[in-house]
Amino acid sequence: MEYLCNLILAYAQPMDRIWLVFYWISQNISYGAQWNVNLSIPESVFIARQGVCDGYASLFQHLSNMVGVPCRKVSGLAKGGGYLKPLFLGSVRWCINCSYPPIHIANHAWNAVRLGDRSWYLIDSTWGAGHRKSITNEYCRELDTHYFLTRPEHFLYSHLPSSATWQLVAGPERLSYNTFVSRPLVWAAYFDLQLQVVEPANSPEITFDKQRGFAEVLIRAPNDMVISSSLRKNNINSSNEQCLVQFLNEQQLWQCLFLPQRCGTHTVTIFGRRQNSSDNGGCAIKFYLNVPLFRSVKLTKFPTTYKGFSDYKCELFEPLNGELKQGSQITIHCRISEAISVRLILDDNEWLPEDGYNKETGHFKKTITVPKQKITLNVKNKKETTYSTLVLYTVI
Protein backbone atom coordinates (compact mmCIF):
# COMPACT_ATOMS: atom_id res chain seq x y z
CA MET A 1 0.00 0.00 0.00
CA GLU A 2 2.86 2.38 0.81
CA TYR A 3 4.47 1.63 -2.56
CA LEU A 4 1.23 2.56 -4.35
CA CYS A 5 0.88 5.78 -2.36
CA ASN A 6 4.49 6.76 -3.09
CA LEU A 7 3.82 6.36 -6.80
CA ILE A 8 0.74 8.57 -6.50
CA LEU A 9 2.60 11.17 -4.42
CA ALA A 10 4.88 11.75 -7.42
CA TYR A 11 2.00 13.79 -8.83
CA ALA A 12 1.89 17.30 -7.39
CA GLN A 13 -1.78 18.17 -7.91
CA PRO A 14 -4.37 16.85 -5.41
CA MET A 15 -6.82 16.41 -8.29
CA ASP A 16 -4.41 14.03 -10.05
CA ARG A 17 -3.80 12.10 -6.84
CA ILE A 18 -7.45 11.61 -6.02
CA TRP A 19 -8.19 10.53 -9.59
CA LEU A 20 -5.42 7.92 -9.42
CA VAL A 21 -6.86 6.56 -6.17
CA PHE A 22 -10.32 6.34 -7.77
CA TYR A 23 -8.96 4.73 -10.93
CA TRP A 24 -6.75 2.23 -9.07
CA ILE A 25 -9.67 1.04 -6.97
CA SER A 26 -11.89 0.70 -10.05
CA GLN A 27 -9.32 -1.52 -11.76
CA ASN A 28 -8.16 -3.61 -8.82
CA ILE A 29 -11.02 -4.09 -6.33
CA SER A 30 -13.94 -6.37 -7.17
CA TYR A 31 -17.34 -6.22 -5.51
CA GLY A 32 -17.94 -9.17 -3.19
CA ALA A 33 -17.26 -10.52 0.27
CA GLN A 34 -15.25 -13.42 1.66
CA TRP A 35 -16.67 -14.99 4.80
CA ASN A 36 -13.31 -15.04 6.61
CA VAL A 37 -12.18 -11.49 5.81
CA ASN A 38 -13.23 -8.27 7.53
CA LEU A 39 -13.81 -6.17 4.44
CA SER A 40 -14.49 -2.95 6.32
CA ILE A 41 -10.79 -2.67 7.20
CA PRO A 42 -8.82 -0.89 4.43
CA GLU A 43 -5.81 -3.19 4.67
CA SER A 44 -8.03 -6.28 4.34
CA VAL A 45 -9.77 -4.89 1.27
CA PHE A 46 -6.41 -3.97 -0.27
CA ILE A 47 -4.98 -7.46 0.27
CA ALA A 48 -8.13 -9.39 -0.70
CA ARG A 49 -8.72 -7.14 -3.72
CA GLN A 50 -12.38 -7.45 -2.83
CA GLY A 51 -14.97 -5.59 -0.80
CA VAL A 52 -18.48 -4.23 -0.47
CA CYS A 53 -19.43 -0.56 -0.34
CA ASP A 54 -18.14 0.03 3.20
CA GLY A 55 -14.83 -1.55 2.24
CA TYR A 56 -14.54 0.51 -0.92
CA ALA A 57 -15.26 3.71 1.00
CA SER A 58 -12.89 2.80 3.84
CA LEU A 59 -10.05 1.99 1.42
CA PHE A 60 -10.70 5.14 -0.57
CA GLN A 61 -10.60 7.25 2.59
CA HIS A 62 -7.40 5.57 3.78
CA LEU A 63 -5.55 5.95 0.46
CA SER A 64 -6.75 9.54 0.01
CA ASN A 65 -5.49 10.57 3.41
CA MET A 66 -2.17 8.81 2.76
CA VAL A 67 -1.64 10.85 -0.41
CA GLY A 68 -2.50 14.10 1.34
CA VAL A 69 -6.11 14.63 0.27
CA PRO A 70 -8.57 15.09 3.17
CA CYS A 71 -11.37 12.55 2.87
CA ARG A 72 -14.45 11.49 4.84
CA LYS A 73 -16.55 8.36 4.64
CA VAL A 74 -20.26 9.11 4.30
CA SER A 75 -23.08 6.66 4.97
CA GLY A 76 -26.68 6.92 3.89
CA LEU A 77 -29.39 5.61 1.61
CA ALA A 78 -28.60 4.79 -2.03
CA LYS A 79 -30.83 3.52 -4.81
CA GLY A 80 -28.72 0.50 -5.64
CA GLY A 81 -29.70 -3.10 -6.26
CA GLY A 82 -32.65 -4.25 -4.18
CA TYR A 83 -33.67 -0.73 -3.18
CA LEU A 84 -36.47 0.22 -5.56
CA LYS A 85 -39.00 -2.49 -4.97
CA PRO A 86 -39.02 -2.72 -1.15
CA LEU A 87 -38.87 1.02 -0.54
CA PHE A 88 -40.80 2.54 -3.43
CA LEU A 89 -43.59 0.03 -3.24
CA GLY A 90 -43.70 -0.21 0.53
CA SER A 91 -41.90 2.13 2.89
CA VAL A 92 -42.70 5.26 0.94
CA ARG A 93 -46.32 4.78 1.96
CA TRP A 94 -45.82 4.37 5.69
CA CYS A 95 -43.12 7.02 6.10
CA ILE A 96 -44.60 9.64 3.79
CA ASN A 97 -44.24 12.29 6.50
CA CYS A 98 -40.58 11.58 7.27
CA SER A 99 -38.41 14.64 6.76
CA TYR A 100 -35.20 12.61 6.78
CA PRO A 101 -34.31 8.90 6.62
CA PRO A 102 -34.09 6.90 9.83
CA ILE A 103 -30.48 5.88 10.52
CA HIS A 104 -31.29 2.16 10.38
CA ILE A 105 -32.20 2.22 6.69
CA ALA A 106 -28.74 3.42 5.58
CA ASN A 107 -27.57 0.85 3.04
CA HIS A 108 -24.49 2.33 1.38
CA ALA A 109 -21.23 4.19 1.96
CA TRP A 110 -19.32 6.64 -0.22
CA ASN A 111 -16.83 9.49 0.22
CA ALA A 112 -16.37 13.23 0.27
CA VAL A 113 -12.95 14.74 -0.51
CA ARG A 114 -11.67 18.25 0.08
CA LEU A 115 -9.83 19.91 -2.79
CA GLY A 116 -8.52 23.45 -2.85
CA ASP A 117 -9.93 26.08 -0.54
CA ARG A 118 -12.16 24.00 1.75
CA SER A 119 -14.44 22.80 -1.07
CA TRP A 120 -15.83 19.29 -0.66
CA TYR A 121 -16.67 16.95 -3.54
CA LEU A 122 -18.55 13.65 -3.72
CA ILE A 123 -17.18 10.32 -4.94
CA ASP A 124 -18.62 6.81 -5.03
CA SER A 125 -15.78 4.41 -5.83
CA THR A 126 -18.10 1.38 -5.51
CA TRP A 127 -20.47 2.48 -8.25
CA GLY A 128 -17.59 3.95 -10.22
CA ALA A 129 -15.88 0.55 -10.40
CA GLY A 130 -18.70 -1.52 -11.87
CA HIS A 131 -22.14 -2.97 -11.34
CA ARG A 132 -24.08 -6.20 -11.08
CA LYS A 133 -26.04 -7.33 -14.13
CA SER A 134 -29.74 -7.14 -13.44
CA ILE A 135 -30.60 -10.64 -14.69
CA THR A 136 -27.61 -12.82 -13.74
CA ASN A 137 -26.44 -10.73 -10.76
CA GLU A 138 -22.92 -11.26 -12.13
CA TYR A 139 -20.44 -8.50 -11.26
CA CYS A 140 -19.31 -6.48 -14.27
CA ARG A 141 -16.21 -4.32 -13.88
CA GLU A 142 -16.81 -1.10 -15.80
CA LEU A 143 -15.33 2.30 -15.03
CA ASP A 144 -18.00 4.97 -14.62
CA THR A 145 -16.52 8.44 -14.20
CA HIS A 146 -19.93 9.91 -13.43
CA TYR A 147 -19.31 8.98 -9.79
CA PHE A 148 -16.00 10.86 -9.62
CA LEU A 149 -16.53 14.40 -8.28
CA THR A 150 -20.23 14.19 -9.10
CA ARG A 151 -22.24 17.40 -8.97
CA PRO A 152 -24.17 17.35 -5.65
CA GLU A 153 -27.54 18.04 -7.29
CA HIS A 154 -27.01 15.00 -9.54
CA PHE A 155 -25.69 12.83 -6.72
CA LEU A 156 -28.87 13.48 -4.73
CA TYR A 157 -30.94 11.58 -7.26
CA SER A 158 -29.37 8.34 -6.05
CA HIS A 159 -27.56 9.05 -2.74
CA LEU A 160 -29.06 10.59 0.41
CA PRO A 161 -26.53 10.92 3.27
CA SER A 162 -27.62 10.19 6.84
CA SER A 163 -26.32 13.65 7.74
CA ALA A 164 -27.83 16.46 5.67
CA THR A 165 -24.49 18.29 5.85
CA TRP A 166 -23.04 15.91 3.27
CA GLN A 167 -25.64 16.76 0.67
CA LEU A 168 -23.24 19.64 -0.10
CA VAL A 169 -26.03 21.94 -1.25
CA ALA A 170 -27.34 25.15 0.26
CA GLY A 171 -29.97 24.88 2.99
CA PRO A 172 -33.03 25.74 0.85
CA GLU A 173 -31.90 23.21 -1.79
CA ARG A 174 -31.48 20.33 0.65
CA LEU A 175 -33.57 17.28 -0.13
CA SER A 176 -36.03 15.73 2.27
CA TYR A 177 -36.36 11.98 2.52
CA ASN A 178 -39.82 12.21 1.00
CA THR A 179 -38.54 14.07 -2.06
CA PHE A 180 -35.63 11.66 -2.45
CA VAL A 181 -37.76 8.51 -2.53
CA SER A 182 -40.26 10.24 -4.83
CA ARG A 183 -37.68 10.56 -7.59
CA PRO A 184 -37.16 7.81 -10.18
CA LEU A 185 -33.84 6.01 -10.34
CA VAL A 186 -31.58 7.63 -12.93
CA TRP A 187 -28.13 6.78 -14.27
CA ALA A 188 -25.29 8.87 -15.66
CA ALA A 189 -26.86 8.87 -19.14
CA TYR A 190 -29.80 10.87 -17.76
CA PHE A 191 -27.49 13.79 -17.05
CA ASP A 192 -25.05 13.25 -19.92
CA LEU A 193 -27.89 13.30 -22.47
CA GLN A 194 -29.73 16.16 -20.70
CA LEU A 195 -33.01 14.29 -20.33
CA GLN A 196 -35.95 15.44 -18.23
CA VAL A 197 -38.89 13.43 -16.91
CA VAL A 198 -42.09 15.36 -17.60
CA GLU A 199 -44.58 12.68 -16.56
CA PRO A 200 -44.60 11.25 -13.94
CA ALA A 201 -42.75 14.30 -12.64
CA ASN A 202 -42.32 13.30 -8.99
CA SER A 203 -42.83 9.58 -8.70
CA PRO A 204 -40.82 6.39 -9.15
CA GLU A 205 -44.02 4.62 -10.19
CA ILE A 206 -46.00 4.90 -13.42
CA THR A 207 -49.77 4.94 -13.21
CA PHE A 208 -51.60 2.36 -15.30
CA ASP A 209 -54.50 4.04 -17.12
CA LYS A 210 -57.42 1.62 -16.87
CA GLN A 211 -59.52 3.60 -19.35
CA ARG A 212 -56.93 3.65 -22.13
CA GLY A 213 -55.48 0.27 -21.22
CA PHE A 214 -51.83 1.31 -21.11
CA ALA A 215 -49.31 3.41 -19.16
CA GLU A 216 -47.41 6.50 -20.29
CA VAL A 217 -44.09 8.25 -19.64
CA LEU A 218 -43.20 11.62 -21.19
CA ILE A 219 -39.56 12.63 -21.66
CA ARG A 220 -38.05 15.93 -22.82
CA ALA A 221 -34.74 15.57 -24.68
CA PRO A 222 -32.43 17.66 -26.90
CA ASN A 223 -33.13 17.60 -30.64
CA ASP A 224 -30.37 15.12 -31.44
CA MET A 225 -31.58 12.53 -28.92
CA VAL A 226 -33.54 9.36 -29.61
CA ILE A 227 -35.44 7.57 -26.82
CA SER A 228 -36.26 3.86 -26.51
CA SER A 229 -37.64 1.69 -23.70
CA SER A 230 -38.10 -1.80 -22.31
CA LEU A 231 -40.71 -3.47 -20.13
CA ARG A 232 -39.83 -6.36 -17.81
CA LYS A 233 -41.54 -8.66 -15.39
CA ASN A 234 -39.51 -11.05 -13.22
CA ASN A 235 -36.34 -10.02 -15.10
CA ILE A 236 -37.82 -11.23 -18.41
CA ASN A 237 -38.07 -8.74 -21.26
CA SER A 238 -41.54 -8.28 -22.71
CA SER A 239 -42.03 -8.39 -26.47
CA ASN A 240 -41.50 -5.27 -28.56
CA GLU A 241 -45.25 -5.06 -29.16
CA GLN A 242 -45.77 -4.10 -25.51
CA CYS A 243 -43.78 -0.84 -25.87
CA LEU A 244 -44.33 2.05 -28.25
CA VAL A 245 -42.00 5.07 -28.22
CA GLN A 246 -42.84 8.01 -30.45
CA PHE A 247 -42.11 11.72 -30.78
CA LEU A 248 -44.99 14.13 -30.10
CA ASN A 249 -44.25 16.97 -32.49
CA GLU A 250 -46.57 19.61 -31.02
CA GLN A 251 -45.36 19.12 -27.45
CA GLN A 252 -41.77 18.33 -28.52
CA LEU A 253 -41.75 15.36 -26.14
CA TRP A 254 -40.99 11.67 -26.39
CA GLN A 255 -43.99 9.55 -25.46
CA CYS A 256 -43.29 6.05 -24.10
CA LEU A 257 -46.37 3.80 -23.99
CA PHE A 258 -46.50 0.44 -22.21
CA LEU A 259 -49.03 -2.33 -22.72
CA PRO A 260 -48.24 -5.15 -20.24
CA GLN A 261 -50.04 -8.42 -20.81
CA ARG A 262 -49.94 -9.57 -17.18
CA CYS A 263 -50.91 -8.05 -13.86
CA GLY A 264 -48.38 -7.34 -11.12
CA THR A 265 -45.23 -5.27 -10.88
CA HIS A 266 -43.18 -4.52 -13.98
CA THR A 267 -39.88 -2.68 -14.43
CA VAL A 268 -39.72 0.06 -17.05
CA THR A 269 -36.34 1.24 -18.33
CA ILE A 270 -35.82 4.30 -20.53
CA PHE A 271 -32.77 4.46 -22.81
CA GLY A 272 -31.25 7.41 -24.66
CA ARG A 273 -28.82 7.68 -27.58
CA ARG A 274 -27.57 10.21 -30.07
CA GLN A 275 -29.44 10.26 -33.37
CA ASN A 276 -27.82 8.04 -36.04
CA SER A 277 -25.71 6.36 -33.36
CA SER A 278 -25.05 2.68 -34.02
CA ASP A 279 -25.36 1.57 -30.38
CA ASN A 280 -28.57 0.88 -28.48
CA GLY A 281 -28.01 3.72 -26.04
CA GLY A 282 -27.42 3.81 -22.32
CA CYS A 283 -29.81 3.13 -19.44
CA ALA A 284 -31.10 6.50 -18.29
CA ILE A 285 -34.19 6.06 -16.10
CA LYS A 286 -35.99 3.25 -14.28
CA PHE A 287 -39.62 3.19 -13.11
CA TYR A 288 -41.96 0.63 -11.61
CA LEU A 289 -45.36 -0.08 -13.13
CA ASN A 290 -48.01 -1.89 -11.09
CA VAL A 291 -50.71 -3.41 -13.31
CA PRO A 292 -54.07 -4.10 -11.61
CA LEU A 293 -55.67 -7.53 -11.73
CA PHE A 294 -58.86 -6.29 -13.35
CA ARG A 295 -58.38 -3.99 -16.32
CA SER A 296 -60.13 -3.32 -19.59
CA VAL A 297 -58.30 -4.74 -22.60
CA LYS A 298 -58.82 -2.23 -25.40
CA LEU A 299 -55.54 -3.02 -27.14
CA THR A 300 -54.00 -6.45 -27.61
CA LYS A 301 -50.58 -5.19 -28.67
CA PHE A 302 -48.91 -2.19 -30.27
CA PRO A 303 -47.65 -2.28 -33.85
CA THR A 304 -44.06 -3.46 -34.25
CA THR A 305 -41.77 -0.49 -34.84
CA TYR A 306 -38.21 -0.54 -36.13
CA LYS A 307 -35.15 1.65 -35.57
CA GLY A 308 -36.10 4.08 -38.32
CA PHE A 309 -39.37 4.87 -36.56
CA SER A 310 -37.45 6.68 -33.83
CA ASP A 311 -34.79 8.12 -36.15
CA TYR A 312 -37.52 9.75 -38.26
CA LYS A 313 -39.19 10.99 -35.06
CA CYS A 314 -42.46 9.40 -36.12
CA GLU A 315 -45.78 9.90 -34.38
CA LEU A 316 -48.53 7.33 -34.86
CA PHE A 317 -52.07 8.68 -34.49
CA GLU A 318 -54.04 5.63 -35.61
CA PRO A 319 -54.41 2.72 -35.31
CA LEU A 320 -52.51 2.02 -32.10
CA ASN A 321 -53.66 -1.59 -32.08
CA GLY A 322 -51.03 -3.74 -33.76
CA GLU A 323 -53.53 -6.49 -34.62
CA LEU A 324 -56.06 -5.68 -37.33
CA LYS A 325 -59.13 -7.59 -38.47
CA GLN A 326 -59.00 -8.96 -42.00
CA GLY A 327 -61.37 -7.21 -44.40
CA SER A 328 -62.03 -4.23 -42.12
CA GLN A 329 -61.63 -0.63 -43.26
CA ILE A 330 -58.94 1.28 -41.37
CA THR A 331 -57.18 4.62 -41.65
CA ILE A 332 -53.44 4.70 -41.07
CA HIS A 333 -52.45 8.17 -39.91
CA CYS A 334 -48.98 9.17 -38.76
CA ARG A 335 -46.44 11.95 -38.92
CA ILE A 336 -42.97 11.30 -40.42
CA SER A 337 -40.22 13.92 -40.60
CA GLU A 338 -37.94 14.43 -43.61
CA ALA A 339 -39.28 11.63 -45.83
CA ILE A 340 -39.57 12.07 -49.61
CA SER A 341 -41.83 9.06 -50.12
CA VAL A 342 -44.12 6.92 -47.94
CA ARG A 343 -45.76 3.71 -49.16
CA LEU A 344 -47.82 0.88 -47.71
CA ILE A 345 -47.09 -2.72 -48.64
CA LEU A 346 -49.80 -5.37 -48.19
CA ASP A 347 -48.84 -9.01 -47.60
CA ASP A 348 -45.26 -8.39 -48.80
CA ASN A 349 -46.23 -8.12 -52.46
CA GLU A 350 -48.83 -5.41 -53.07
CA TRP A 351 -47.33 -1.91 -53.16
CA LEU A 352 -50.07 0.68 -52.81
CA PRO A 353 -49.83 3.91 -54.85
CA GLU A 354 -47.49 6.62 -53.61
CA ASP A 355 -50.10 9.00 -52.24
CA GLY A 356 -51.40 10.17 -48.89
CA TYR A 357 -48.16 11.82 -47.77
CA ASN A 358 -47.93 15.60 -47.33
CA LYS A 359 -44.24 16.57 -47.43
CA GLU A 360 -44.91 20.03 -45.98
CA THR A 361 -46.69 18.86 -42.83
CA GLY A 362 -45.10 15.41 -42.65
CA HIS A 363 -48.53 13.79 -42.26
CA PHE A 364 -49.37 10.49 -43.93
CA LYS A 365 -53.02 9.44 -44.03
CA LYS A 366 -54.55 6.63 -46.05
CA THR A 367 -57.68 4.48 -45.74
CA ILE A 368 -57.36 0.86 -46.82
CA THR A 369 -58.95 -2.57 -46.55
CA VAL A 370 -57.00 -4.86 -44.26
CA PRO A 371 -55.42 -7.74 -46.24
CA LYS A 372 -54.91 -11.38 -45.20
CA GLN A 373 -51.52 -11.29 -43.46
CA LYS A 374 -49.82 -7.97 -42.71
CA ILE A 375 -49.30 -4.30 -43.51
CA THR A 376 -45.99 -2.47 -43.47
CA LEU A 377 -45.34 1.27 -43.55
CA ASN A 378 -42.22 2.08 -45.54
CA VAL A 379 -40.30 5.31 -46.18
CA LYS A 380 -37.46 6.67 -48.26
CA ASN A 381 -35.47 9.86 -47.71
CA LYS A 382 -33.07 11.87 -49.88
CA LYS A 383 -30.05 9.81 -48.84
CA GLU A 384 -31.66 6.41 -49.54
CA THR A 385 -32.27 4.59 -52.80
CA THR A 386 -34.52 1.94 -51.24
CA TYR A 387 -37.39 1.93 -48.79
CA SER A 388 -36.98 1.02 -45.14
CA THR A 389 -39.77 -0.43 -43.01
CA LEU A 390 -40.87 1.63 -40.01
CA VAL A 391 -44.08 -0.05 -38.82
CA LEU A 392 -45.61 -3.54 -39.05
CA TYR A 393 -49.26 -4.46 -38.45
CA THR A 394 -50.34 -8.10 -38.24
CA VAL A 395 -53.75 -9.43 -39.29
CA ILE A 396 -56.09 -11.66 -37.29
Can you lay out the helices and strands and say which pair or pack?
Layout: H1 2-9, H2 14-28, E1 30-31, H3 42-48, E2 50-51, H4 53-66, E3 71-78, H5 84-94, E4 108-115, E5 119-123, H6 125-129, E6 130-132, E7 139-141, E8 148-150, H7 152-155, E9 159-161, H8 177-181, E10 185-186, H9 188-192, E11 196-199, E12 205-206, E13 208-209, E14 214-220, E15 225-233, E16 236-237, E17 243-248, E18 253-258, E19 264-274, E20 282-291, E21 304-305, H10 307-311, E22 315-318, E23 323-324, E24 329-335, E25 341-346, E26 350-351, E27 363-369, E28 374-380, E29 388-395
Parallel strand pairs: 1-2, 12-20, 23-29
Antiparallel strand pairs: 3-4, 3-9, 4-5, 5-8, 6-7, 10-20, 11-14, 13-14, 14-18, 15-16, 15-19, 17-18, 19-20, 21-29, 22-24, 24-27, 25-26, 25-28, 28-29
Helix pairs in contact: 2-4, 3-4
Question: What does this protein structure show overall?
Answer:
A hairpin with a 7-residue loop joins strand 19 (264-274) and strand 20 (282-291). The strands form seven sheets. Strands 10, 12, 15, 16, 19 and 20 form a six-stranded mixed sheet that branches. Strands 21, 23, 25, 26, 28 and 29 form a six-stranded mixed sheet that branches. The protein folds into three domains: 1-183, C8orf32 fold (Roll), CATH 3.10.620; 196-291, Immunoglobulin-like (Sandwich), CATH 2.60.40; 304-395, Sandwich (Immunoglobulin-like). With 396 residues, it is of the alpha+beta class. It has helices at 2-9, 14-28, 42-48, 53-66, 84-94, 125-129, 152-155, 177-181, 188-192, 307-311; strands at 30-31, 50-51, 71-78, 108-115, 119-123, 130-132, 139-141, 148-150, 159-161, 185-186, 196-199, 205-206, 208-209, 214-220, 225-233, 236-237, 243-248, 253-258, 264-274, 282-291, 304-305, 315-318, 323-324, 329-335, 341-346, 350-351, 363-369, 374-380, 388-395. The N and C termini lie far apart (68 Å).
